[in-house]
TrEMBL record:
UniProt entry tagged with the keyword Lipid biosynthesis: no
MF terms (GO), sorted A to Z: transaminase activity
Reported cofactor(s): pyridoxal 5'-phosphate
Name of the protein this chain belongs to: Aminotransferase
Family under the similarity heading: Belongs to the class-III pyridoxal-phosphate-dependent aminotransferase family.
CDD domains linked to this entry: OAT_like
Key words, A-Z: Aminotransferase, Pyridoxal phosphate, Transferase
Amino acid sequence: MFAKHHNLDPAEIAQADKRHVLHPWSDLKTMHTEDPLVMAEAKGIHISDAEGNRYIDGIGGMWCVQVGYGREELIETMAEQARRLCYYTPFGAMANVPAAQLAQALAARAPGDLNTVSFATSGSGAVDSAIRFAHFYFNCLDQPSKRQVIVRMDSYHGSTYLTASMNGKRRDWSQFDYARELVHFLPSVNAFRRPKGQSLEDFANEKVADLEAMILELGPENVACFVAEPIQASGGVIVPPEMYLPRCLEICRKYDVLYISDEVVTAFGRLGHIFASKDVFGITPDIITCAKGLTSGYIPMGATIYSDRLIKAISGENAVDHPYFTNGFTYSGHPVAAAVALKNLEILEGDGILEQVRDTGPYFQAGLQKLRELPIVGDVRGMGLMACVECVVRKIGAEPGEADMAVAARVDAHAQERGLILRPFESLCILSPPLIVTKEDIDRIISILRDSLIATQNDLIAEGIWSPPARG
Ligand code: PLP
């Protein structure tokens, strides 16, 4: 056991955390009282806490540990690069070997003419840079009024001031301030929530029309960009209707609105391809943002990849006076992170992991679909190795439509007891396992999830707060 081996007292660690760490999305009511789950070590698809309990990591860290934990090649690469050159400034015309090679490798894999890369240290930084670029670009073209940003409800784009302002998950809107004057939300594209009787085709047409209507309402001369995750990940793994994304791209082109594809989750193999925009959804956006799986979570890194068309319009002979792109970070293109990302690409492609996901992904989705037979399950959706099981629990005595929003936390607690970690969000149980999961691992994940859903149903019935709906 890790804690014993390292002579650590898990209770002391938990105490230090509760007293001193302000976590992302911390519940301030319980931050000093609720014991954290202290993770201590991991290998392959398994993670162990400081008490020695072992779990299947059903969420791949946070949608990011693509190639699994403890890969010696990545660890060695890190050490080797740190020994050779641990860091040097990326500002101005300063380059380092792995960052230049990585930018070239990303350009070779990105669709169309997306050939220029700026590096960040997170997904938020990558998206923030994309929006800053959009504003910079239109300012350079003497169109300074083009600055409004269009996003969608249920989206998640990050946690900087600007990207947090672009998040469309209502529960995330808290006591913070937001740059609301800059950001506009389209209705959710979650087909599960479409009005009863509306066909999928009509729903898709309506969602596309929503985008055009908003551009026209704001005035195309005022809109800089549309930002969209190909599949809305943390908002509930919302797979858009067929042809929705290509049609949105057409509309953006029509009104000279930049299309920014936020691939922080969908890139690097989660859908069986390095980038999903073109290979899965058939679109070549103007800008792609990515992070997470870029380094399989071994070290922080994000990247924003820009179309040559945009760069050409504002650089070289087209550059304006004072043409400095004053955006970037001390650790942009960090050599150790870039070396890890290069090695990670080599593993994803060289070990056949992309092909594996194209085989295990459909198997995973088909297995999860069988959970629909449980009364607590309202919807099962996903693609590749990202999925969501949405529970629908109407409390006894509650108004129709009023749901028990904490139900996924109950499922997660049961799953943890059985050795699986999933990601609960309101009534959503989200899964995004490491890409190296085998079909056998998938069977085990689904079997634990099924047992946990049944245990949750039984608890709710026993507590007298829910009864299964009659099925007709
Ligand atoms: N964009 C998407 C689609 C994300 O899912 C996330 C994080 O979950 C981000 C951006 C922000 O990335 P980070 O947490 O690395 O800043």
